[in-house]
C-alpha cells in the first residue's frame, strides 16, 4: 500500500486586496492538497493600500468556508516559511506571459535556497485571467465598478478605502 503523506502547500502573496483571481487559484489548489497556507506578505516595499492586518482579515473572510485553508502573515524569506511550516510546495498564479519570466526566476531562486522546494504554477480560469490587485487599486479612486473583480464578502471593506 502506498504511504500517504499529508500535503501542505503555501500560496504566498501580498493580497492587496485578495481578488477573484486569487480565490480561483485557492479553490483549485484545495482540490490538490490537504492544506493550503495562504501566506500574506508584509512587503512594505510594494507600498500596499491595505495594512497587513486588513489584508489578513480580508483573506480570512474570503476563505472562512474553506476547511483546508490556514492564513498566516510572514516577513521573511519564503523558503524560511516553508521550512517552518514543513512544506515543500509553493503555489503561484500565472495570468500572462509577463508573469512567467518573473515567477520562473523566483521559483529557481527559491529552489536554489531549498533544494526540495517545488513551485507549482496555476493559471486562473479565463474569466479571471485579467484580474490583479493592481487593477482593483487603480479603479478604486475613481469609484469604478469592482464587484466582478473581488469576492462580495469584502466589497465593503475594499470600497471603504475611498468613501
Describe the 3D structure.
The structure is a single chain. The chain is of the alpha/beta class. 36% of the residues lie in helices and 18% in strands. It is built from six helices and five strands. The chain has helices spanning 20-30, 52-63, 78-84, 97-113, 133-139, 155-159, and strands spanning 8-13, 35-41, 69-74, 89-93, 118-122. β2 (35-41), α2 (52-63) and β3 form a beta-alpha-beta unit. It is globular and about 45 Å long. The model has no long low-confidence stretch (mean pLDDT 92).
Number of domains: 1
Q: Report the end-to-end length measured between terminal Cα atoms.
A: 59 Å
How many β-strand runs?
5
- State the CATH architecture: 3-Layer(aba) Sandwich
Largest sheet, strands/sense/barrel: 5 strands, parallel
Mean pLDDT: 92
**What proportion strand?**
15-25%
Q: Secondary-structure element order, as H and E?
A: EHEHEHEHEHH
Question: What is the percent of helical residues?
Answer: 25-40%
CATH superfamily: HUPs
Here the CATH topology equals Rossmann fold
Name the structural class.
Answer: alpha/beta
Total helices: the number is 6
Strand order of the largest sheet: 3-2-1-4-5
Helix and strand topology:
Elements: E1 8-13, H1 20-30, E2 35-41, H2 52-63, E3 69-74, H3 78-84, E4 89-93, H4 97-113, E5 118-122, H5 133-139, H6 155-159
Parallel strand pairs: 1-2, 1-4, 2-3, 4-5
Amino acid at each position: 500500500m502506498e504511504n500517504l503523506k499529508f500535503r501542505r502547500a503555501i500560496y504566498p502573496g501580498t493580497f492587496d486586496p485578495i481578488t477573484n483571481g486569487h480565490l480561483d487559484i485557492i479553490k483549485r489548489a484545495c482540490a490538490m492538497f490537504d492544506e493550503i497556507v495562504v501566506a500574506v506578505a508584509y512587503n512594505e516595499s510594494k507600498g500596499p493600500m491595505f495594512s497587513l492586518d486588513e489584508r489578513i482579515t480580508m483573506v480570512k473572510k474570503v476563505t472562512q468556508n474553506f476547511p483546508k485553508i490556514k492564513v498566516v502573515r510572514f516577513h521573511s524569506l519564503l523558503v524560511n516559511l516553508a521550512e517552518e511550516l514543513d512544506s515543500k510546495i509553493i503555489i503561484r498564479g500565472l495570468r500572462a506571459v509577463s508573469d512567467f519570466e518573473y515567477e520562473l526566476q523566483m521559483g529557481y531562486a527559491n529552489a536554489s535556497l531549498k533544494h526540495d522546494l517545488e513551485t507549482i504554477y496555476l493559471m486562473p480560469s479565463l474569466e479571471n485571467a485579467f484580474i490583479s490587485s493592481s487593477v482593483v487599486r487603480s479603479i478604486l479612486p475613481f469609484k469604478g465598478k469592482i464587484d466582478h473583480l473581488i469576492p462580495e464578502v469584502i466589497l465593503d471593506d475594499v470600497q471603504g478605502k475611498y468613501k
